[in-house]
Amino acid sequence: MTPRGRVALVFCLAVVYAMCYSAIKAGLAYAPPLRFAGMRAVLGGAVLLALLVIQRKPVLPPSRFWRGIPALAATGTFLSFGAMFLSPGRTGAGIASVLGNTGPVFVVILAAIFLGERVTRATAGALALGLAGVTLIAYPAITDPSRRGALGAILPLMAAAGTAVQSVIVKRMELRDAVLSVTAWQFVLGGLPLLAVSALVERGTPITWNGSFVSLFLFLTVVGTSAATALWFWLVQDEEVGRLTLQLFLVPVLGLLSAVVLFGEQVGAMEAAGVAFVLLGISLVVSRSEPTAAPRVSRGAPPRDAGTA
User: Fold this and answer.
1) How many Å apart are CA 62 and CA 75, to the nearest integer?
2) pLDDT of residue 15
3) Would you say 9 and 286 are in contact if contact means Cβ atoms under 8 Å apart?
4) What pTM does this model have?
């Protein structure tokens, strides 16, 4: 794929990811967070499994991937989705989106350590600008006494860390033709524990099934989970995961804007300056997005356990 094609696909992903936190916050008016998260994951996996059946492709991935799937389920689904759905209720949807999409910071560091990806001056500059921008965007809300303090910031950061570890594991696994099946089982195996925890701690909290909730749920499940994650896993196969992920610094900006439009959340001078920093960092990455030969991992090599990533 051409560099412009990759940039266009990453931009589409950024738009979807940015809308997710606002969709989650709207949906929490109708469903408890952990049950909502578990249902999103399990149904998202089921959609992909159904697609494999329709295409007459193997539903079960090759045996060499099964060691890595539980790690993906634990980090990219159970941890990430759980924290993601708990966070908007403890801070604004915009700030949850900003902090929950700081994954590029974690990914660049993890990719350099565990994948041997080189941190160029452009990458370091983009990372510094993006991190500065996200800090400026998030600082007013984190220090606002009307918010729920550190917990409102910690939860979305946990979600970001979970997705970052997931990206590194996926890169090591070299999924190729098994992208859909591995993604599907990651969601199913990570979503079932979320439903189990929900059954223990959210008993007696019903789900209000109406048109609004069903629409939000289908968007999060089909577009924001099944399609977006499978596309992301496909993209990281042939690109340096650190540099590719830096383009997702656009997500906090779009997430903040969607929260302003949908929930009337305010944007001050500091947040506006943060947006400018983020856009400058992204432009630095995109301007140097020529294809490079990413470090390869032998196809048979097993992924490292999530605890070592």
Assistant:
1) 21
2) 86
3) no
4) 0.78
